[in-house]
Design brief:
Oligomer: single chain
Number of strands: 20
Radius of gyration: 25 Å
Structural class: alpha+beta
Strand content: 35-45%
Helix content: 10-25%
Shape: elongated
Length: 357
């Protein structure tokens, strides 16, 4: 199913929860709505599902306007954040509930439920109650209940937020694999950037009801279009500056840390304000006086170090109190530097992205 949303707005009193959002979702695509809590992503999902009525704008399924059509006639499956399972019903009864409401023949219900439980690896747990299941198993029951309806569109509203971190990683892999096997157009809501990057074909980043950028995970991570997206997706060092000109195909930017070089960006011209985005993994450290190659060099001192397992992250305080984060990807073969040590942060111009301020 192809989804098209045109200039969609939803207000609750004076709050504009969704503000003039337009986007398109391709057939069979796993499309994620990503943003902080309260940004409007769940409201947008419920508008698409028909649980809310928009104040303005149109929602189209395969070119057909569905604004006046109730949820039960849109052929959607929905998995809620709290799973919404009936505690007094068994797994089988929960999954079969929607099919019974549709008054399907008993044999067809039996076949669909058995197949749905097989798809989510719950065969053999038909007679258990939700209270006897783990969080991950409850989430799969909710997913099976949605899938047995043979929906053309699957809506997932923060489905993994109640799971432990390790289980969450495993279940999201299962969701991605199952979605690709079935080819169902899926809209996934989350505030977890890692979850969005690992699952999605494309991602829409929202904040305060507005759409900031749409792109593939790689595009959003490597080419953020706005300061908000650069700051929200992953970790970024954002250095304010003013464009001074160009040299040797690179942008010259004057900052409080000195003149730095960055990639060229269409539309930026001398005297324009911008932010230079540098990922911690694209920066390196050298002891003062032992600098190696690198177009950009910033002097400072280490003020904090955090061990993250596969990464050692340093916070370096530079001129004017600017903090720069630097990731060491191989802590095993790195001689740890102490707090207070003077260092130089090195980062290439080719990994320094200017963003219009």
């Amino acid at each position: 199913m192809q989804i098209r949303i045109i200039d969609l707005t939803k207000r609750f009193g004076t709050l504009e929860a969704v503000s003039h959002v337009s986007l398109e979702i391709g057939d069979g695509e796993l499309f994620t709505l990503l943003g902080p809590s309260g940004c409007g992503k769940s409201t947008l999902l419920r508008l698409i599902g028909g649980f809310y009525v928009p104040d303005t704008g149109g929602i189209y399924f395969n070119g057909r306007l569905v604004n006046p059509i109730p949820p039960y006639q849109r052929n959607i499956g929905m998995v809620f954040q709290n799973y919404a399972l009936w505690p007094h019903m068994t797994v089988w009864q929960n999954v079969a509930y929607g099919l019974k409401v549709r008054r399907l023949p008993g044999q067809e219900i039996q076949e669909r439920v058995s197949e749905g439980l097989r798809k989510v690896n719950l065969t053999g747990l038909e007679d258990r109650y939700p209270g006897q299941l783990s969080g991950g198993q409850q989430q799969r029951v909710a997913l099976a209940r949605a899938l047995v309806l043979n929906p053309e569109l699957l809506l997932l509203d923060e489905p993994l937020s109640n799971l432990d971190a390790k289980i969450r990683v495993a279940v999201r892999s299962e969701i991605r694999k199952l979605q690709k096997e079935l080819g169902i157009t899926t809209i996934y809501v989350t505030h977890d950037q890692e979850e969005a990057l690992s699952l999605s074909d494309r991602i829409a980043v929202l904040n305060q009801g507005k759409l900031f950028q749409i792109g593939t995970p790689r595009e959003l991570y490597e080419e953020p279009a706005t300061p908000f997206v650069a700051d929200f997706i992953g970790v970024n060092n954002l250095i304010p500056g003013t464009v001074a000109g160009e040299r040797d195909g690179l942008l010259r930017v004057q900052t409080a840390l000195g003149e730095l070089q960055a990639l060229r960006r269409p539309g930026l011209k001398p005297s324009d304000r911008c932010l230079l985005a540098v990922r911690p993994e694209n920066a390196s450290l050298a002891l003062a006086g032992r600098e190696g190659p690198g177009e950009n060099r910033v002097s400072g001192k280490i003020v904090f170090a955090s061990y993250l397992g596969n990464t050692l992250r340093y916070d370096v305080e530079a001129a004017g109190g600017t903090l720069l984060k630097v990731d060491i990807r191989d802590p095993w073969h790195h001689e740890r530097l102490e707090v207070g040590v003077s260092v130089t942060v090195l980062f290439p111009a080719g990994s320094t992205l200017p963003i219009p301020a």
